[in-house]
Amino acid sequence: MSASSSSSSSDGMRINKYIAHAGVCSRRDADTLVEQGRVQVDGHTVTQHGTRVHEGQRVTVDGEEVYPLEFEYILLNKPKDTISTTEDPKGRQTVLEAIGVPADNPSGLFPVGRLDRNTTGVLLVTNDGDLAHRLMHPRFEIPKIYYVRAQARVKPHQLDHLERGVELEDGPAAADRVAYLDPTTKTDIALELHEGRNRQIRRMMEALGHDIVQLERAKYADLSLGHLQRGDWRRLQPQEVRELYTSVDLTP
User: Mind telling me the catalytic residues?
Assistant: First the structure.
């Protein structure tokens, strides 16, 4: 169901949902905008969270008119040397450019979380701010699986160490699960996390004296690459979107 079809129902759409479907922010942040008197409906400042918007009404946030967007959900197999932002002042390729989004980004697409420049793999791109906010929120503990190739062999006791936790400059960090991908070479491991700190896996490995040669995110929530080649992308199936909503206790 699209945002626009929801707004045409006889009961209208709750103001925070309308703003979230316009890609401005999450519903919770939209409530804050209302509390701050920054939202108007047909020229009148809205102060009640329960205000509903009906078809034909004009909504502005900070004086700028906003409209519900048709939500898009795109799975990208992120290539190396690609920046997980909507634009880059240094002129490097962004993930939006990788999926062919026009420079003006009319749909308001953005990546859900970040993979650093040299990390490849599963990346969700959407304009569904409410879903993105919850997927990135620590309380939902969304699992992520990474394939790590270290420069040197990772010893068994170091796998245990990763699960017990290593000390980083921003606090202890532990993997939920760790295993060898190739027990013969012991340089390739799979590591599952539910956290998402900046360069977390690289820093955890560095804390054990390991340099990473290659890092790929193989799974995010229930999304995996399947046969999607590096640099390619596809739209999510409706069932995949429903599963993402279920994982964060959200109703479409």
Answer: 116
